[in-house]
Write a structure and sequence with these properties.
Layout (H helix, E strand, L loop, with lengths): L3 E12 L2 E12 L3 E5 L6 H8 L7 E6 L2 E2 L5 H7 L1 E4 L11 H7 L6 H10 L1 H4 L11 H14 L4 E5 L7 H18 L2 E5 L3 H7 L2 E6 L2 E7 H6 L1 H9 L1 H7 L3
Parallel strand pairs: 3-8, 3-9, 6-7, 7-8
Antiparallel strand pairs: 1-2, 1-4, 4-5, 9-10
Helix pairs in contact: 3-6, 10-11
This protein binds adenosine-5'-triphosphate.
Length: about 240
């Protein structure tokens, strides 16, 4: 079993005193890719925000790299190597790609930059382009490349595939999978593309109404399509989609 770099136990978090996720257990080990799945509003983004301490835990604990995650100090956590790429990508549109990549490290590291750009070759030829003029897929690659330049130990990506063509997603997800394995990064993906996510994941957790309703290895989840759909949609909604 890999060393657990990120874990939540009994995590409850939400907004204005109202829980949006309840009693969640989750862990991601070195070199592992775990997907957090579930329908709209099931609590995936809330979970990520709680995991980086942007939302304080109402109950339970969050541990990253063996230490409790501090509340509302994501920059401190990022310095320790725990990075979240948010669903709006968190990038600066006025910079060029080259300038953006330079922001990622206090001291430039050309070898690391070259190694990361190797994983996203489409970006390599766009270094002079303004970030705001990149396509959605290129912007997403830049957001992830920027996070990777710092050499993260834990990487969380919220809805990487949002607004992207499936072909781009099919290229990017395996690149993230390889990076996790090669560099021992613990990766937590929030994804709407269930099958694409499971294809590159070791394990997944399905949330519904803020609770983990199904968890297991990707192989187990892919082998039980009905079980997955039922957990994903909820029994009643699933029945409705079946015309019952
Ligand atoms: N800032 C907020 N204030 C109050 N409630 C919120 C806030 N953000 C999210 N919620 C609520 O918390 C619940 C979980 O939302 P969350 O964004 O975590 O779901 P999600 O699974 O990421 O959804 P999606 O797939 O649509 O992005 C939803 O009921 C949502 O309406």
């Amino acid at each position: 079993m890999p060393e657990q770099l990120l874990s939540a136990e009994g995590l409850t978090a939400g907004y204005n005193g109202v829980p949006a996720i309840r009693d969640l257990d989750l862990s991601v080990g070195a070199g592992e890719v775990v997907s957090l799945l579930g329908p709209n509003g099931s609590g995936k983004t809330t979970t990520l925000l709680a995991l980086v301490g942007l939302l304080p835990a109402m109950a339970g604990t969050v541990t990253a790299l063996g230490e409790p995650v501090p509340t509302r100090r994501p920059h401190l956590l990022a310095r320790r190597g725990v990075r979240l790429v948010p669903d709006d990508r968190g990038i600066y549109f006025g910079l060029s790609v080259r300038e953006h990549l330079r922001l990622a490290r206090r001291r430039p590291d050309p070898a690391r930059t070259a190694a990361v750009l190797d994983r996203f070759p489409a970006l390599a030829g766009l270094q002079s382009r303004k970030v705001g003029l990149l396509s959605g897929g290129e912007q997403q690659m830049l957001a992830i490349a920027t996070a990777l330049l710092g050499g993260p130990k834990v990487l969380m990506v919220d809805e990487m595939s949002l607004g992207l063509a499936p072909k781009i997603v099919q290229e990017m997800l395996p690149a993230i999978r390889e990076l996790a394995r090669d560099e021992g990064i613990a990766v937590l993906l929030v994804e709407q593309h269930v099958e694409l996510a499971l294809a590159v994941s070791d394990r997944a957790v399905v949330l519904n109404h803020g609770r983990a309703v199904l968890a297991g290895t990707a192989t187990y989840l892919l082998a039980g399509r009905d079980r997955l759909e039922s957990a994903y949609f909820g029994a009643d909604e699933f029945a409705a989609t079946q015309g019952a």
